[in-house]
Amino acid sequence: MASQLIESVALPSTIARRRHVRRQRRSQVTEVTPALAWYGLFMVLPLLAMIALSFFNWNSLVAQPHFGGLTNYRYLFQDEILRTAIVNTVLYVGVGLLLIIPGGFLLGFFLSRRPPGHAVLSVILFTPWIVSASARAMMFTGLYQPSGAINSILGAVGLGNLQHLWLSNPSTALWSVIATEAWAGIGATGVIFSAALGRISPETYEAARLDGAGVWREMFSIAYPMTKDFVGLMTMLQFLWLFLGSAGTVLLLTNGGPGSSTMTLAFYLYDQAFVSGRIGYSQAIGVVGLLVGLIGMGVIRFAFRTKE
Predict the structure, then answer these.
(1) Together in a domain, 246 and 154
(2) How many domains does the chain have?
(3) Strand partners, 67
(4) What pLDDT, in 10s, does the model give residues 5-61?
(5) Beta pairing class for 56-57 and 66-67
(6) 254 touches 172 (CB < 8 A)
(7) Within this chain, do residues 106 and 245 fall inside the same structural domain, yes or no?
(8) SS3 state at 147
(9) Sign of torsion, CA 249 250 252 253?
(10) What's this model's pTM, rounded to 2 decimal places?
(11) Among 103, 117, 205, 304, which is most exposed with the fewest C-beta within 10 angstroms?
């Protein structure tokens, strides 16, 4: 009798809990459905379309595409310009990150200490990021001219042997384009880092100073470990910006030249799609770019992983 009474009480309670769990699940599904639909419409479908088009021979926007199987992919292995573009992309992104992330972190640490005039300095450092790409390219084109500011300064200080045709010399063109990106990225990244570093309690630094820690130890033993996840996030964002945004910078400064010395994957995709009209082949290049991007993101995620 007692067991039957317990079962009669427990059964409605169990049913009520199950109904509550089902309502919670339906509510969660309802909440995430718009986001999933948006992501699928604007992210997944374009990627699937890119992969599908890479199997077609489509040589003009007004032409009729024809299924070509693996033709585009077979040509990828024979394309020397593509190999050059991959190498240039790795250099472009790798060197750009090595300049922007450490440089931005140092600036951010300095700004987080709130030195005199830090507010004005933050505005000045962030300004290059909001300058339009065309204006930035015009400014650096002037700097890199044979009689531009860089060569003039080198000549004035007795370093005329270092003067170059910066954008016309294959040995300096890519590094000149990377320097343009670094000029725009370091300051803005530093300002963003300063916001994250500013959340660290001043008492933490005071305790470290009492233990004899200097500025460099505060930076790398306190500031960096406490913001490592944020540094990893900023590295991923800068990786994507450099990887995808290289097309615009290269187009405005060098148009991929001289030769193919500044050709990157993003610019090569643009060139094949909108200049050469090889739509199908450009999508195959896009698939290669997707794989390179995924590998790069994985490497960054692995490098900034935390034990927690």
Answers:
(1) yes
(2) 2
(3) 56
(4) 444 544 556 666 777 667 777 777 777 788 778 878 888 888 899 999 999 998 887
(5) antiparallel
(6) no
(7) yes
(8) coil
(9) positive
(10) 0.87
(11) 117
